[in-house]
Description:
Elements: E1 5-8, H1 18-27, E2 33-38, H2 50-56, E3 64-69, H3 77-83, E4 87-90, H4 98-107, E5 111-116, E6 134-138, H5 153-166, E7 172-176, H6 184-190, E8 194-197, H7 199-203, H8 209-217
Parallel strand pairs: 1-8, 2-3, 3-4, 4-5, 5-6, 6-7, 7-8
Amino acid sequence: MxxxxxxxxxxxxxxxxxxNEIKRLEEGGADMIHVDVMDGHFVPNLTMGPPIIKALxxxxxxxxxxxxxxxxxxxxxxxxxxxxxxxxxIHPEATEDLKNxxxxxKSLNKKVGVSLNPKTEIDLITxxxxxxxxVLIMSVNPGFGGQKFIPEVLDKIKxxxxxxxxxxxxxxxxxxxxxxxxxxxxxIEAGANILVSGTTVFKNNNGNIKKxxxxxxxx
Length: 219
């Protein structure tokens, strides 16, 4: 079993102190930094673009786990690769040719992730799993932080883990949306090995990031 990793979402950080917040995450034991990119079109919210990611790159050596909730996504992949993304995760619904976009990300020497919304079926990607480094299962409808966890997605993770084991594949299974100390164990037991968490990491236990990350990893 892969070790459990925590990818804190900087969507919940203090935006006036982003550089310092990333340093705090690194010191607190984060395994990577989750960057939610929203365009106000594919999802109903706006966040950050390549210039901010590029500016933040200097503050840490941790991998940038960049989740692109933008459409059409293909023409912007290069910009995020150049800005310093290490993992680029896209949605099947946001590209005209998922296989082509996956190959493009790989050609830029980046890890490729594909994200499935709560209602998106696994069947969309089962034929491509040998080309994917990470599958991100959304446990909320994307667009806003602080939403309530949708437990039904755990079945999707179990099915994905079964396929992964049967075919002896190596991709990571990441879950994002409402992850806290009540459901982290359920996600890990289902087969997730990377947990994205924003509010819980930054706000719980009076903002003790190390304690919160350690608690999320325990199963």
